[in-house]
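Ticket #4471: complex job returned nothing on first submit. Input attached below:
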Amino acid sequence: MSHLTDKASVSIRKQPPNILRELLKQATMPDIISLAGGFPAPESFPTQIIQECVNTIIKTKGTKIFQYGVTDGLAELKHALLDLKRRDLNDITFESIQITTGSQQALDLIGRSFIDKGDKIAVELPTYLGALQAFNFYKPVYFNLEPDEEGPTTESIKKAFLAHVKFIYLVADFANPSGSTISLKRRKEIAFLAKKYNGLIIEDSPYKDLRYKGKHIPSLYQLAPHNTIYLGSFSKVLAPGLRLGYAIGNPELIRFLTIAKQGADLFTSGFDQAIATEYITSGALKNHIPKIVALYRPRLEAMLSALEDYFPKDSHWTHPEGGMFVWVTLPKTIDASELLKKTLSRKVAFVPGKPFFPPSARPKVGLNTMRLNFTNTPPEVIRKAIKIIAEEIR
Amino acid sequence: MSHLTDKASVSIRKQPPNILRELLKQATMPDIISLAGGFPAPESFPTQIIQECVNTIIKTKGTKIFQYGVTDGLAELKHALLDLKRRDLNDITFESIQITTGSQQALDLIGRSFIDKGDKIAVELPTYLGALQAFNFYKPVYFNLEPDEEGPTTESIKKAFLAHVKFIYLVADFANPSGSTISLKRRKEIAFLAKKYNGLIIEDSPYKDLRYKGKHIPSLYQLAPHNTIYLGSFSKVLAPGLRLGYAIGNPELIRFLTIAKQGADLFTSGFDQAIATEYITSGALKNHIPKIVALYRPRLEAMLSALEDYFPKDSHWTHPEGGMFVWVTLPKTIDASELLKKTLSRKVAFVPGKPFFPPSARPKVGLNTMRLNFTNTPPEVIRKAIKIIAEEIR
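Support reply: We reran it on our side without changes. The output follows.
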């Protein structure tokens, strides 16, 4: 007789558990210094402000906020986002916005809405693991966007659009995992090509507000609003434990996400949405972002200077102006997974870079890379951890 | 040049917007008496208790609860559910539980985990629309379970298992839309067949605690724990605006749901999960359920007596012992959708029964049926609404 587990769908059997999530379990063991996660610093969470938001909501909204809500999102939150984003994201209207259960759900809804089995989609090398996890379920064929110092090359973007990819997925500001930012010149080229070939850009933008130096660069959405779906998140500017993200784009495309979401979870927590609304409209958000930036800036600086001081000269790394990650390329002879085993024995965790490459990438690419998170560890501990990793490299 | 909307996946194009959600928009217009939604009464939401839960959480859990969480669910909530459900659901362990973003997400994760295109799954006639919405995306072939007074017939269940359906989906207690409950005798037969044929039962159980008369009946899970995934919800005993549900079953099967959820939304709101934990462990939940039951019982009685007083003799309806809905079968000559147009002009809304039948049902089946919700309207208003519908039937 067959076993009940034989009833599993082919899709779910082929979906490996998220390596990062498995790793994170290790990284939360006591005494571990973890540069592995993509965690904001808990001391950055405005818990007292959240308490005040809750008090206000329960006093002023009464029971309404606890009832079933509409799928596109709490109207008050959509209006608050409109006011907040109108300056940076042109042409947006109430119908341009879909609230999602974290940014991860936005990625899943994008997958549902645009990918049929075998469809081509384009991603950077390396790219965000959570996006691969979301998209993989819909069985796309990956088209690789090769990067140079300014971002994915114009040539590879053009090739992708000519190959009729359903969309190109980009993290334009302080990418996960690379920390890189696409230059304004390259953004303009990408926007031009998207318009020329009627291509779709998915611009994942969870880190844009976390800029520690340099100047704000217009988003891809701003340069090609009709051709871009912009994904935002409250995880880095409020708290990830409230699962809140949003997709902003052409209402005709956003409508697909709304239909997809009806089956997926009907609507996002009304209570969490109300908290975010109050957080924006009370002015707390604008007030709080500079505090997060002030907390993270010295952590990034500590990481970059420790890398400079301790890491071997034949390795190199990115110099992010914001976000949460530095990406290191070690000498070709070093396998980052093997290195991790050694550093774990000395209670230091990081993430090997390999999982951030799509299945289409060459098998050996990225083996000598690693992602280092700097937001969840104080500067002096970062320095200590980098020193330990450097010792194990030698 | 092609239009950007042409990039939509075939799946999303074939997914019609949820008719019920569209209807609900109408039903929330001012002055409408709505028996249409599946809404709990807002006065049943324990808002002051939620405020107290939040105060306790922020005082005792600090920032931790706002950090990224694990995909299977907040450990404290899983432990609280274990204690709460252990008596009714035998053999459950920590690994048996997956927390979901509302019960709707559990249905989606079931679809992801078990349905490949063309796979057979079995549902009752009629069945829950939200389940059809979730499952349809994965393109199953529906196998119809014909009901008699005791539930889906043993014969049809046997046929379904022999046809190798991936699972049978049942709402055993006070079903949506029918209000019917499967008899103990029939449950035992279903459990026997599931074991005999190694079949999988999805037991959706959001209403079990809302019993207004009669005696508790053991769940299908209790009768066939190895063969059943049990879905529960906080929407009816706490509030739907906190999106919280759970799946309980054989850990080997639950593991698939966890993998599916990683891509879908990573994890469910930690803040909402902490509120539910506090709500259970403080004893508030057990205290609050009798109050909800006391609120809804007279509403059900008002609906049944008004139907008796006003509806034509050649119509008939279910006599639920709990839940939220009464299901009415009108004379064959009456089309409930046409009737709705008339009653809407008199400011009364209900839901025609047709959408609750899977695509596999005969085209004309259910045209003369309707679902009436009694939980969100006071008794005297229910009476008035039923009278108006009855007048429009004549």
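Residues 210 and 290 of chain A are 9 Å apart (CA to CA). Closing as resolved unless it happens again.
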